[in-house]
Design goal:
40% strand, 1 helix, 8-stranded antiparallel β-sheet, 2% helix
Length: 205
C-alpha cells in the first residue's frame, strides 16, 4: 500500500511508480492502479476541471457536472480492464465514464453510459455520446443499487461493458482510439447524484 500526498490514496504499482505521463504503456510496463477512496479529498492523481467532484463517505461523489469529467492522471495501455462499483441515487440513474480520452476534454474518447436518457439506454459511443453509429441497448437499472462495472478492451478494437459480470453492450472500432492522446480514464456525470468506489485497473495482454 502506498499513500500519496498524505491523503490515503490506495494504489498498487508493482514497480513503485506510475506510467510516464503522455505515453501509452505496454501491458508489460503497466503495473496497475487501485483506489478505494478511503480519505477526505480527491488526491493528486485526479485532475478536477470544475464541478462538484469530491470524496464522501469513502466513495467518489458527484451531484451533476454537465459533463465536466474528472480525469485520472494515469496512462492506460491499449488493452485494459477497468473495474469499479457505481450507484445512482437519482431516478434517472444515468451513470457514465469516458475511456481512452485525452485527459482534458469531454468526448475525446469513448463514452460509456449505463441507463442514460432517463434510465432507458445503455451505450458505448465514440467521440460523441450522440454518435449516429453508437452501439446501444434499451435497458432499465435500479436507483440506489450498487452495480459492479467492468469495461475492457482485450483485442485492441472491441470495447465491452459488463455489469455484474453480464455483457451489456460492446463496440467494435475499425480505427480504435489509443496512443498518447487517447490513454486516459475519466468519471463523468450529467445531472445524477452518483457514487463510484473500489476502482481497479489491470493491463490485458
Amino acid at each position: 500500500m502506498q499513500t500519496i500526498g498524505g491523503l490515503g490514496l490506495f494504489m498498487t504499482f508493482l514497480c513503485g511508480c506510475p506510467p510516464e505521463a503522455g505515453k501509452t504503456p505496454s501491458a508489460a510496463d503497466f503495473t496497475g492502479f487501485r483506489d478505494d477512496f478511503e480519505r477526505d479529498a480527491l488526491g493528486d492523481k485526479y485532475v478536477k476541471k470544475g464541478g462538484t467532484w469530491g470524496v464522501e463517505n469513502g466513495a467518489l461523489h458527484s451531484v451533476g457536472e454537465h459533463n465536466i469529467p474528472l480525469w485520472l492522471d494515469v496512462a492506460l495501455p491499449k488493452n485494459v480492464r477497468v473495474e469499479f462499483t457505481a450507484w445512482s441515487n437519482s431516478k434517472a440513474v444515468d451513470t457514465k465514464i469516458e475511456i481512452f480520452g485525452d485527459g482534458l476534454r469531454h468526448e475525446s474518447g469513448y463514452i460509456v453510459i449505463l441507463a442514460g436518457w432517463n434510465n432507458t439506454i445503455s451505450t458505448i459511443a465514440r467521440l460523441d455520446e450522440h454518435e449516429k453509429t453508437r452501439v446501444e441497448k434499451r435497458t432499465t437499472f435500479e436507483k440506489g443499487r450498487k452495480y459492479r462495472w467492468r469495461v475492457e478492451r482485450a483485442d485492441g478494437k472491441t470495447l465491452r461493458l459488463f455489469i455484474d459480470d453480464q455483457l451489456v453492450v460492446e463496440y467494435v472500432d475499425a480505427d480504435p482510439l489509443y496512443g498518447p492522446r487517447n490513454n486516459r480514464l475519466a468519471f463523468t456525470n450529467w445531472e445524477s447524484d452518483v457514487y463510484y468506489d473500489d476502482l481497479t485497473i489491470t493491463a490485458l495482454p
